[in-house]
Amino acid sequence: MNELAVIEVGREALWVIILTAGPIMIAGLVVGLIIALFQALTTIQEITLTFVPKIFIIFVAVILFLPFMMATVIEFARKLFDRMAVLG
Fold first, then answer.
1. What is d(CA 48, CA 19) in angstroms, rounded to the nearest whole number?
2. CA geometry: angle at 43 spanning 40 and 44, to 5°?
């Protein structure tokens, strides 16, 4: 296995991480921005107002995107195992 193959596997691994974590992080970011805007406009500075909706939306996002995330990780693992079989 040469350096180019190692870099390729690392690049693919980082892309899989971005694809699997991205939707959940974006959902949390959007909800956080909406809540921050709401708090700035109404001057309500309640701490639990930021955490409860974020936790709920992130939980819903995990449930919605879990099939996509699992398919992405399984496909990456299959490619990795195929490469290992070719080397071994």
1. 29
2. 105
